[in-house]
């Protein structure tokens, strides 16, 4: 099947080209990744261009009609119409609907056609998911002296693959990516798959364009420990549980594999549960609040090994942590948390006192083990100068003063 970019220029898998009066440019001799010599790339582009100029209908073909063919087609279109490679690539993606073009192949063609330094300006920061809860609190902290981009999904959708993200990063000269984007329904299996695909696109772009990555992970990579009080520093072995925990674990393994190979410079920020104004997590805060306003009884839980407790990190402290990582350029793993565990029943009591409502509690026995994890942040304090400044009582009062 041929996908037409222009009336006389298309791409296709080599074995699916129908009979017809086509001039086929076979680019299968190129490898489907980085490493192709510029001379071979330019030869393929020039072959397609000369055939077009001779009035022929040209089909550029590789094994699957995805990366090599479409990257070379963008090069041909760029030369034929006298436009920038990025503009030609956008036309190819729009016409073919192919968003999975490998960024390494794209950048090989770009470098052959427009040989410039691949080194990015380190002052430019892209925040994926920047319009979300943490991103909204972080952006104002970085505005002074920092070029920060927080595109909405209709401007940049990283679920469409590395090609779109790479094009955006080249256009905007991005030097660092802070990856906050995650599916909103974050605890199901579909979200896990989507999150890994997004991260792979980010990693491919960071590797190819030499962009530093700040990856935000979570305490849930320790949620498989059955403990009423696990004090987790960066040396504790990961042990996830549940779809979200497994997803973050897999993502961390991908990130660390790229870092260990020297492909990407990366910092990993593991956060305790983040709460605060404008957020809806942990959901028990909103649930407790609404139950108190209605006069309902609040149900808390008791597991085999005890009652659940949370190390809650206020969003302003989380934003300050990310600001430290952006500005420090220190590539390592850091834990960020308040470092204290508060039982859910005690959280309910605090909320009741804030809203001045009587508290009625009951307790449900749960046939499972609780995992209470406090994030030890001494390394962040020592190397980044960071500490949590907002205690849970102050944080809840700030949060609930807005919602009442």
From TrEMBL:
Pathway this chain belongs to: Bacterial outer membrane biogenesis; LPS O-antigen biosynthesis
Domain NAD-dependent epimerase/dehydratase: start-end pairs: 126-328
Pfam families hit by this protein: Epimerase
Domain of life: Bacteria
Family: Belongs to the NAD(P)-dependent epimerase/dehydratase family.
Protein name: UDP-glucuronate decarboxylase
């Amino acid at each position: 099947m041929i996908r037409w970019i222009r009336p006389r220029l298309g791409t296709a898998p080599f074995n699916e080209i129908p009979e017809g009066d086509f001039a086929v440019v076979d680019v299968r001799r190129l490898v489907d990744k980085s490493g192709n010599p510029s001379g071979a790339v330019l030869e393929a582009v020039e072959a397609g261009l000369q055939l077009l100029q001779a009035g022929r209908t040209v089909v550029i073909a590789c094994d699957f009609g995805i990366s090599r063919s479409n990257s070379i087609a963008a090069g041909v279109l760029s030369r034929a119409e006298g436009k920038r490679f990025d503009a030609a690539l956008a036309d190819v993606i729009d016409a073919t609907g192919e968003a999975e073009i490998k960024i390494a192949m794209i950048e090989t063609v770009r470098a052959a056609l427009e040989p410039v330094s691949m080194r990015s300006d380190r002052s430019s920061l892209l925040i994926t998911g920047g319009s979300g809860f943490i991103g909204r609190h972080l952006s104002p902290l970085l505005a002074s002296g920092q070029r920060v981009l927080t595109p909405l999904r209709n401007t940049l959708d990283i679920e469409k693959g590395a090609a779109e993200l790479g094009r955006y990063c080249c256009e905007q000269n991005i030097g660092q990516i802070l990856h906050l984007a995650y599916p909103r329904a974050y605890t199901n299996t579909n979200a896990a798959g989507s999150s890994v695909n997004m991260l792979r696109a980010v990693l491919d772009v960071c590797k190819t364009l030499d962009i530093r990555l700040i990856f935000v992970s979570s305490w849930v990579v320790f949620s498989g420990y059955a403990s009423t009080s696990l004090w987790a520093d960066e040396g504790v072995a990961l042990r996830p549980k549940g779809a979200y925990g497994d997803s973050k674990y897999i993502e961390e393994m991908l990130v660390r594999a790229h870092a260990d190979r020297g492909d990407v410079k990366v910092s990993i920020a593991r956060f305790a549960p983040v709460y605060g104004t404008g957020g809806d997590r942990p959901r028990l805060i909103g649930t407790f609040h609404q139950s108190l306003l209605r006069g309902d009884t609040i149900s808390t839980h008791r597991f085999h090994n005890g009652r659940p407790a949370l190390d809650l990190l206020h969003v302003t402290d989380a934003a300050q942590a990310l600001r430290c990582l952006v500005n420090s350029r220190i590539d390592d793993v850091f834990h960020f948390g308040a470092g204290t565990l508060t039982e859910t029943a005690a959280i309910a009591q605090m909320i009741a006192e804030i809203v001045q409502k009587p508290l009625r509690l009951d307790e449900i026995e749960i046939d499972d083990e609780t995992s209470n994890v406090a994030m030890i942040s001494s390394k962040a304090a020592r190397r980044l100068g960071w500490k949590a400044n907002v205690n849970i009582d102050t944080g809840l009062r700030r949060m609930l003063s807005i919602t009442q």
